[in-house]
Amino acid sequence: MESRHPLVLGFFLLPGPNSSRPTSFISVSSEGTDLQEGRWGNLDETLSFLDHQTVIVAGSSKGFLLCVANREDNMTYIICNPVTRVFCILPKPHKPYRHVAIAFICKGDHISLDGWKNHYEIVRAGVPNPNGLFTTFEIETFSSTSGEWTESTLNSASPISLVTANRPAFVMGDVIYWHTTYSTLVAYDRTRDSVEVIEFPVNDLLQRLVCWSNRLSVSEGKIHYCMHNGLNIKVWMLADIQRREWILKHKVSFGKMFQKNPRVVCSPVVISVQCLHPQNSKLLLLLLHQVPYWYNLKNKKLSIICNSMGSRCLPYEWPSDLFA
């Protein structure tokens, strides 16, 4: 039986595309700290155990990471467990794509640290041109059950442009949610072979143009959209997926943020919105000068997590049954 609520151990802090820094792990729980300090597991946060000099982390699911070894053609994928240092290089997909939108799904729970009794899938959509609009995308799906890639087609009633850089999909049930470049969210239901386009709550052209940083994330089982425009941070929740109704949950000005946190000296231009805590929608992860901070949306307090630096953060969860 799968745990309903995997434990958030921490986040992998990922370097920028031109950075020489390796990945690093930041703990946000006592179990994550114990892991980082070697009290359990054998964490290699830099992923040095992989047989490739450079990898890009493209997804995270239930203790496993999906990595890409060559971003030029997106043909070499590696599934790894950074705690057990076990990894598997997948067979190559059928067709090279310089740009892909990708989703990583791991089904089942770890009953031991090796973790290879799980079933996992990789779903990737080939994007011919990241700046173009398309109604049809080639889909390739890898299943650990068959050990093969299968091909299918995604058809959208309206033209869409899938985001391919640094924005891994998130999955809820049987639905994959992909970002687009035009302030919409694509919901791809593979069981029904259907595609729905959900507009972001900020769909006014002027407001989109002044958006400095934005992210979608899942927190407490709900989809949230976070953005900042240089003046304030806003957080919406998708209250009703069918009706596509967004509710504005939080709005805070940077003036009030820094007034409440006088020791933090920072310009909004170097603030990047990352994600909400998967299990606490009052905690927003920000990068200030590429350093991770929690921003408590309730008491308005900023707290530094660590001094490591990166360009984006990826949640790292582990089945809570291991700590029962």
List its salient traits:
324 residues; mainly beta; Neuraminidase; four-stranded antiparallel β-sheet; 23 strands; 6% helix; globular
Concise synopsis of the structure shown:
This protein is mainly β and 324 residues long.
String of helices and strands:
EEHEEEEEEEEEEEEHEEEEHEEEEE
Helix content range of the residues, please? under 10%
Structural class: mainly beta
CATH class value: Mainly Beta
Number of strands: 23
- The order of strands across the largest sheet is 3-4-5-6
The CATH homologous superfamily is called Kelch-type beta propeller
Q: Assign the CATH topology.
A: Neuraminidase
Number of domains: 1
Average pLDDT metric: 87
Low-pLDDT segments: 111-115
Q: Main sheet, how many strands, which sense, barrel?
A: 4 strands, antiparallel
Distance linking N and C termini: 14 Å
CATH architecture: 6 Propeller
The rounded Rg comes to: 19 Å
Shape: globular
Number of helices: 3
> What fraction of the residues are assigned to beta strands by DSSP?
over 45%
Describe the structure.
It is globular, with a radius of gyration of 19 Å. It is 6% helix and 48% strand. Mean pLDDT is 87; it is low at 111-115. Strands 3-4-5-6 form a four-stranded antiparallel β-sheet, with no helix packed on it. 37% of the residues are buried. It is mostly beta strands and 324 residues long. The longest helix has 7 residues, at 30-36. The protein has one domain: Neuraminidase (6 Propeller), CATH 2.120.10.80. The protein has three helices and 23 strands.
